[in-house]
Amino acid sequence: MACRIAFVLFPGFQQLDLAGPMAVFEVARLARPGSYTWRLVASGAGTVRSSAGVDWPATALPRRLDEIDLVMVIGGDGVDAACSDTRLIAWLQRAGRSGARIASICSGSILLAAAGLLDDRAATTHWSRGRQFAEEFPAVRLQPERIFVREPAQRRRGERLPELWTSAGMTAGIDLCLALLARDHG
User: Fold this and answer.
1) Across the 186 residues of the chain, what is the mean pLDDT of every consecutive 10-residue run?
2) pTM here?
């Protein structure tokens, strides 16, 4: 069965944060047909403008989270504004309770932290966002020297916490996706 990925976009996302991970899963799908499928999602259906000014088509955040195995939040300069998108934050919180794996590329970890998904867990982010991250999200155990961090799924106080992956940058995001691929297929 294919791993169904939702790449989460917001205005001002970084294209390479999307293209690098997508290419990893594209090549995996060529080697193992049917292993991965994906869609681009955002708060509303339509186009989402990247920081480079290129519009990307996206569907609205899916209501049915049982159709998603991996939520991958892309980073970029627009992440700070995206943190005030209450629809997106609420959807990420629901996704965290759904059983899907949750991952972020680069500064996408700021959105995961804003949704409370990283509280009391280890994470990393882009080096240029380290100070901001530590000040705004003191409940997160920031590991700024790591290329990527994986936090296994766990139960805490009766609550199911998702498996979480965060990466330190765009090329580290490719490393994160290769590690996900290795976990899925050896």
Assistant:
1) 95 97 96 96 97 98 95 97 98 94 98 97 96 97 97 86 95 96 92
2) 0.96
